[in-house]
Specification:
alpha+beta, four-stranded antiparallel sheet, 10 strands, Tetrahydropterin Synthase, Chain A
Length: 305
């Protein structure tokens, strides 16, 4: 019985309708202005003539009509470019007017302006651990735009704060999935694969903001560094890795040069070397080519053997 009740509650919560944006067809403000102006003038003339005749009922009716016309003047509103007016009637969503211009709608409507322009913000510099548990500092710039005014207004509370909090949460989750530096070939890292990381961050944020009626146009890491407490250690580690890579390149080049020298001597028949002399020559050439300091050669003026 308990399982059945939990299941029924779950399905009932999943069946809740989501408020989607619908366009409300408001009346042109210029046409409504002309109609209300003519009606107000006519009502004023009629009210004046009724007052001259002294008809109490007619005066009361025309006064009531004047009050209604005065109230109708509050139905005008202006929509700015790339903004929308969200209309509500007694708490119920009536629609959104997105076309810019002067419009008129029921004065009882509650009108709330909402921008659909492209906006951006930069997250705070977050201190998180990367995939290898190294503390790092990371920040990102998120470019976003409201694409559904009804969802942004009614599905989440304070959608701008919701965007900021969820973006930082997505950034934290992304930083935990990847290492700061890649120590293996083909391994994706935060510092080396900026394009792939940006696309991944964008999709992570979009998945969290879909229910808020927001489209994420771009998301990129704007700040990335090791935390101060390990920055000096990681700097030495990077320097050591750079020295090892440089040494490996120097040794590979030196070995190739020694091989070419031996092959050239053998092909041209300049000198015949046994295995012991070849080993000595290779050792001397590697010392000369791989040494950090300039070497001082010793010239042998005697025989080779």
């Amino acid at each position: 019985m308990a399982i059945t009740m939990i299941s029924s509650r779950y399905h009932s919560s999943k069946d809740l309708s989501v408020i989607r944006e619908t366009q409300y067809r408001a009346m042109s403000g210029f046409g409504a202005f002309a109609v209300l102006l003519l009606a107000s003038i006519g009502t004023g003339i009629a009210l004046g003539s009724a007052g001259n005749r002294g008809a109490t009922i007619a005066i009361a009716a025309r006064a009531l009509l004047s009050a209604v016309l005065f109230f109708m003047w509050f139905g005008f509103f202006i929509v700015q470019p790339n903004k929308g007016q969200v209309l509500q009637l007694f708490g119920r969503y009536a629609g959104t007017v997105s076309a810019p211009g002067l419009w008129w709608a029921n004065p009882l409507f509650t009108k709330r302006a909402l921008s659909v322009r492209v906006r951006n913000f930069e997250t705070a510099k977050l201190k998180v651990n990367d995939r290898t548990s190294n503390p790092i500092e990371i920040g990102a710039v998120v470019v976003w735009q409201v694409v559904d005014t009804a969802e942004a207004m009614f599905e989440v509370d304070n959608f701008e704060n919701y965007i900021h909090v969820q973006s930082e949460a997505a950034l934290r989750g992304l930083a935990n999935q990847y290492a700061y530096d890649s120590h293996e070939d083909g391994q994706m890292s935060l510092s080396s694969h900026t394009g792939e990381i940006a696309e991944k961050l964008k999709s992570e944020i979009q998945a969290r903001l879909a229910k808020a009626g927001v489209s994420v146009l771009e998301a990129r890491i704007s700040h990335l560094a090791y935390a101060p407490e390990i920055a000096s250690v990681m700097l030495r580690r990077q320097q050591a890795a750079a020295v090892i890579a440089a040494r490996r390149l120097i040794v590979d080049g030196a070995v190739g040069m020694v091989q070419q020298a031996l092959e050239a001597l053998a092909q041209k028949g300049i000198v015949q070397l046994d295995e012991e002399r070849k080993a000595a020559m290779v050792s001397n050439l590697l010392v000369v080519l791989c040494a950090e300091q300039p070497t001082t050669p010793v010239v042998n003026a005697g025989t080779l053997y």
